[in-house]
Amino acid sequence: MPRSLRIEFPGAFYHVMARGNRRETIFHDDDDRRFFLATLSEACGMTGWRVHAWVLMGNHYHLFIETPEANLVAGMSWLQNTVTRRYNVRHMAWGRLFGDRYKAVLVEGADPYHYQTLADYIHLNPVRARLVLPKKGQSILDYPWSSVAGGWALPPGKRPKWLAAEEGLERFDLPDTVAGRRRMVERLDRRAVEE
């Protein structure tokens, strides 16, 4: 059966996910994670993508991407191929890093409810995977490989330029201030306890 066509248009929002080949680990250490984020930064620079949320897990990742141009396929092709080549050089490996074709679900990113639901889903992934244990006093900030600790909780000058954290906070009716960012983390921590 042929692959289904990707729907691409300017201003589209996507939930993008990819898993390691045979569900194997794609991030062995923090250097792998930094390499991935640096490559994502390059992809955003080439494509104009705005990343609203992200999380890196052991064998997969999630991205919440807005594409100002209709270029998801070209950008993802470059991103995944480049990450694979760099991974293989670093680990002296060969072959595919990612399993099946990445998933890209078109979402209603302009709608506050859908935006909030997807951002929370992505940010709470480490809780569902038991990498953050809120009932033992851990915070979502204790997981450094998501856009909470890696952007939303940081002052604007310390965030990646491609991360749309200020807009994300606005979608939760929170200002991009110390107090607003703290309220966002506290809200996520409460949700983490509920989950």
Structure in words:
The chain contains seven helices and four strands; from the N terminus they run βαββαβααααα. With 195 residues, it is an alpha+beta fold. Helix 1 runs antiparallel to helix 2 (72-91). The termini are far apart. 34% of the residues are buried.
- The amount of beta strand, in percent, is 5-15%
Q: H/E element string?
A: EHEEHEHHHHH
Summed over residues and divided by their number, the pLDDT gives a mean of: 94
- Record field, number of beta strands: 4
Largest sheet: 4 strands, antiparallel
User: Which class best fits the helix and strand makeup?
Assistant: alpha+beta
The radius of gyration over CA amounts to 16 Å
Task: Describe the structure concisely for a colleague.
By secondary structure, the chain is an alpha+beta fold.
List its traits.
single chain; 195 residues; alpha+beta; four-stranded antiparallel beta sheet; 7 helices
Topology, element by element:
Elements (H helix, E strand, L loop, with lengths): L11 E8 L10 H18 L2 E7 L3 E8 L4 H20 L11 E5 L4 H12 L1 H4 L19 H5 L12 H7 L6 H17 L1
Antiparallel strand pairs: 1-3, 1-4, 2-3
